[in-house]
Write a structure and sequence with these properties.
The chain has 17 helices and no strands. The radius of gyration is 22 Å and the shape is elongated. The longest helix is centred in the first third of the chain and has 15 residues, at 64-78. The chain starts with a helix and ends with a helix. By secondary structure, it is mainly alpha-helical. It has 2 domains: 5-204, no CATH class; 210-315.
């Protein structure tokens, strides 16, 4: 199948480092769903609209009309009418957006699987991924592919490519999470995305190995959006409390890991749109231990400044 549309734009832009260049932008499409400031218009950065919906908007149940259109779109795909399905999914994208319809699509497929053609659903999903010019239709294709989860190496390579674009990382992860060694795939992807994609990847990534846990601690917050979105994820998945307790018990720790702990806690104490410190048991005690232990450690100037932040937090 010939790659066109959004997928080809992403594929052609991937550099030798396996990443999209920082300046990469999706063009505004005909429906105005993506406007990334490439022509003076004010819009959402890649992945921002979905991210804001997930982190700052209470979920609402789709309307009966929306659910009816979801069913029509899936039926069209199951019948091999990819063009008809694309029209339906584009309309759904103009309404609530695909990120709010993931559960509805999954629910319809599972409840009606006896009358649906899984092969056509999967191949139709691949078709939408590779050819659609509407970002929401690309996402719909990825959702459909994740539900069928066929072992198609070419299709999986396409998922790996599109996932490098922050607008689609979340939907690529829907697929990867169902693959064998899916966590390793998500880890690989997480290291190559730097915006909302990294935030979504951190949410899905599990610290199954020490390498992953250490990377989560040192690099998990390094996104171009806002560090606090992932702060609690990093605190929990990197086992920050357990690492501090190990140092209290006399265990040595690499300096860069200790400074990363300081940074994570400093981020968690700063005001912002995401409250992460409330998810920590006895945060004052945790912070006090780090401040006291750091008195005997020659940390960098940056870490020392963050320790001053933590001390000020305790004082107030």
């Amino acid at each position: 199948m010939l790659e066109t549309g959004i997928f080809k734009l992403v594929l052609d832009a991937v550099g030798k480092n396996g990443e999209l260049p920082e300046q990469f932008e999706l063009p505004e499409n005909n429906n105005g769903k993506i406007a990334l400031n490439n022509d003076g218009k004010i819009g959402f950065a890649a992945g921002a609209k979905d991210g804001i919906m997930l982190y700052h908007t209470a979920p609402t149940a789709p309307s009966a009309e929306t659910l009816k259109l979801v069913g029509q779109a899936i039926r069209e795909l199951s019948a091999g009418n990819n063009a008809g399905a694309a029209i339906c999914f584009a309309e759904l994208g103009r309404r609530p957006g695909m990120v709010s319809l993931i559960d509805a699509i999954e629910d319809y497929v599972y409840k009606n699987q006896a009358t649906l053609n899984p092969q056509k659903l999967f191949l139709g999903g691949v078709h939408l991924l590779l050819t659609a010019e509407d970002a929401e239709v690309v996402k719909a294709g990825l959702i459909m592919m994740s539900l069928i989860n066929a072992k198609d190496d070419n299709a999986r390579d396409a998922v790996r490519v599109i996932g490098l674009c922050d607008e689609f990382t979340l939907f690529a992860i829907l697929n990867m999470s169902r693959w064998n060694a899916g966590n390793a795939e998500i880890f690989q992807l997480a290291r190559h995305v730097h915006g909302w994609g990294r935030i979504h990847a951190l949410s899905a990534l599990q610290p199954q190995t020490r390498e992953i846990a250490d990377w989560i601690l040192t690099d998990g917050l390094k996104n171009r959006v806002l560090e606090s979105y992932s702060a609690l994820e990093v605190y929990e998945k990197a086992n920050v409390k357990g690492r501090i307790e190990a140092v209290l018990a006399g265990e040595n720790m690499e300096l860069k890991l200790w400074e990363a702990i300081i940074h994570v806690l400093a981020v968690m104490t700063r005001p912002g749109p995401v409250s992460s410190l409330s998810g920590v048991s006895n945060p004052e005690g945790v912070i006090r231990n780090v401040v006291l232990l750091s008195e005997k450690i020659d940390v960098s100037d940056e870490a020392r400044a963050e320790l001053d932040e933590l001390a000020s937090f305790l004082a107030h």
